[in-house]
Amino acid sequence: MSGVVVHRPGAPALVGRTGELHTLLDAVNHPPAVVLVEGEAGIGKTRLVQEALAHPSVAHRTVLAGTCHPIREPFPYGPMLEVLRQLEQYSIPTNLNPVCGVLRPYLPELSEHLPPAPEVRLDHRTERHQLFRAVRELLSAAGPTVLVIEDLHWADDGSRDLIRFLIDDPPAELALVMTYRREELPATDLPLGRAYRHTPGTTSVLIPLFPLDVSAVRSMTATILGRTDVSSELADELRTRTAGIPFVLEEVLRALPGTSTRGATGARLQATVSRDALDRIEVPVLLREMMADQMAALTAEATQAVRAAAVLRLPSGETQIADVAAVQEDAIGPSIREALAAGALHEIEEGRYGFRHSLAQQAVYDSIPGPDRRELHRRAGQALDTARPRPLVQLAYHARRAEQIDKWVEHGEAAADSATELGDIASAVEILEGMLADSAIPRADESRLAINLSRVAVVGLAHHRAVRILRRVLRDNHLPEPVRGEIRMNLGLLLVNQGGEFQQGRVDIEIAIEELRDQPALAARGMAALAMPSWPGISASVNQEWIDRALRALDGDSAPAQRMAVRGNQVALAMNMGDPDAWRQAEELLDRDHPSTELLQVARTYGNLADAAAWLGRYEASQRFRADANRFAADGGAPYFKTITDGTGLRLDWHAGTWQGLADRAREVLLTVHGVGGTAADAHLVLALLAVAVGEADDAVDHLASAGTSTPDEAPVTVAAVASATLIRILLSRGDVTEACAEAERALTRIREKGIWVWASDLVPRAVSAMVRDGRIEQAETLLTEFADGIAGRDAPRARAAQHGCIGIVAQARNRSIEAAEAFTRAQDGYVALPEPYLALRAAESAARCRMSAGDADAARELTGTAEGFAELGATKDAARCRRVLREAGIAIPSARGRRGYGDQLSPREREVVRLVANGHTNRQIAEVLFLSPRTVEQHVSKAMRKLGVSSRAEVASISLTD
């Protein structure tokens, strides 16, 4: 028999305690057993025990659970007697040892099941001994039993004596599990009051529970939020704030706005679990009460020391705490020792004291009256001002809270400048954002700080808050026009580059150019930004006009960085358009030493060239440019310029067929770029392409929407073109030719408006396919001619390979199979030369199928090899399609069965099936993806589940397949 374990509503799955759970279960299932579970408050002792009690292996045992309480006058044996009363729920044997009768006065609920009480009055010692014997006999009669005593540190002496009596000679089928906090044990520092001596034949284990590491914090956060996309950065921040204590972590996450709603978008998750959101969390009531209890027991001097530590925030030494607390230095030692003993303070590192986690610090800080807080902050500023180097961020913090506004502005601005010089752009942005968001900032300082914020934010990543603040500052009609112009231009750049809001950003930049008419070199930077061709709404000819204006605006007084920004965009524009001379221009501009003031613009230029070269199909050059961009970005401390190459790197891996782990890399990029538009679009695009290759069409459509198909006016034209091409492919596979043609027309309109056909190397082949499927062969031929004219004379090897593929599609539609096969083979050769293995295999498949239809006997062998190539690459959908064609042609497919037996291991096909089952696909959906019959899929699923040792499809989802 077993008790009922009631979980807290919404309690997360047990995380990070697998080893401890196995140890506990092993002990409980090998009685007699004594288990001590040690850990601080909130560490998960109760949760671990509950998980063990709910395990099927414990189902046949009687479960008795009780808790010790911190009451001033504990009732002797109270916790043990409360536990024994629970036997009323169970079937108690009738042939109990007569000694059990002594329990009648203590357990009236069980009196009808207990023998008569002894009539002879015994002395206290004898009665106590009989009571202990009676408890042991009753537990022995209960059969297989798990006895749980929680919070042993609060047990009365009588209960401790009774427990020691039990474990010295435990009932044969009893497992005794006790939890305790070492920091709250009585003076002996021993949970049982004396050292426990292991009894022969008894299973004895001590299970210490430690804080969760970052990985476990990430898993628990994902469980509570109902998400999988929790970044390592967020997990690390939560680990720092909660010290990895599960209870504190759970309370923090449940206090966040919006986290009760599962299935929020990734953007919503990042917005909800931001640092600002974490800073705004109020201390949960239980934590606040716990800290209040600890503080209530302290002397006045110790209380003041703890308050000083709360104001200082960071772990501090005795001298600093004494200065802030205004406690004599010879008295600070005893005060800190008292606070340590009470658990109010902890020695974080040798000689430096602080709090277990930030919420404990916040609870104490919030309890300090306002006037006292301000005085403590004033003293903290004085104490820290003598440190070298001066802790500027801390000085600014204390000055603001001491209401010393002039000092706050002075220290804060100096801290931002220092962070910028050190390349810590994120910190500089955070400091300036915090100051400008504060209503106490003097108007005389606001415009200067806003210019500084706009300058550093434009090379950082986080942008949402900066955009709001800069927009608010621009509403001030008292700003001088040149100041307004610079702030507005940087705001526009922030919207265009980081925010992916090109239309609004373009408007801001155009207005700023007019406001900066008396500063032509600065205005040229905005003109050069409008010359970048990736964004929609401006034709390539207009992009060229903007770069020409920017070059004319430069003069002899222009700074080197301004010149590099304009010239770099000039070369990037030329390369994006496939101008063969762009390579010479790039070498002339970049192949030299660069002054430190140019480094950030050099990094940006290399990043833009890497992106442009990748779209052309110049992958080796793109990799070189990307490496240089990362090197210069690291030297210059510009995280945004690094992200430019992150998206390019994902695409290069896709093109190169480096797909192993690519989806994980793309998801990690999404979690780290803070919504940076172009890079996020690249990541979504790659995830969509991977999903199509394995038959995950629905997932692909979702990612394509994020990449640009849902908002093409705010997506890079390059990415939107590939996204549309991929969507057309999906629509055609579903037989929706009409919508495929409509999507093709919309996408082609954007390319025509832009006028850069070298970017259409994915789109045109898919558009031609849609037109041919719709019976519009002549229109497809017209498009092919337009494409050929658009790439004529351009450096565009990828587009040229695509051109051959289009010729093959049209020839195939005209039933000219040999001509089509030859064109597809030329396309294959072009893709191999890039190299781009996936598209080379696609072209090879088309060529082989054309040859098969023409009766070529060798074509089947070629298609078989192509299927194997797809499988090796990871394109399981394509491999399955090739095999289906071979089966339908009556051609035997070589079976792995003849080469090797897989025994208890999964075959490649079974692995494909398991992956799809784990992703929630039904057998019919799997059959569609792999071009198999539902019956065949059913057989594969059955065999795979048997080999994996699982009995349900849900269990399959929890299994990680490795090579």
Summary tags:
single chain; 963 residues; mainly alpha; Rossmann fold; Arc Repressor Mutant, subunit A; two-stranded antiparallel sheet; 7 strands; disordered N terminus; nucleotide-binding; WH-like_DNA-bd_sf
How would you characterize the overall build of this protein?
By secondary structure, the protein is mostly helical. Among the domains are: 18-208, Rossmann fold (3-Layer(aba) Sandwich), CATH 3.40.50.300; 214-281, no CATH class; 297-372, Arc Repressor Mutant, subunit A (Orthogonal Bundle), CATH 1.10.10.10; 388-507; 908-957, Winged helix-like DNA-binding domain superfamily/Winged helix DNA-binding domain (Arc Repressor Mutant, subunit A). Helices cover 62% and strands 4% of the residues. The strands form two sheets. It has a five-stranded parallel beta sheet with strand order 2-3-4-1-5, sandwiched between helices. The longest helix has 18 residues, at 124-141. It is flat. Mean pLDDT is 85; it is low at 1-11, 260-272 and 896-900.
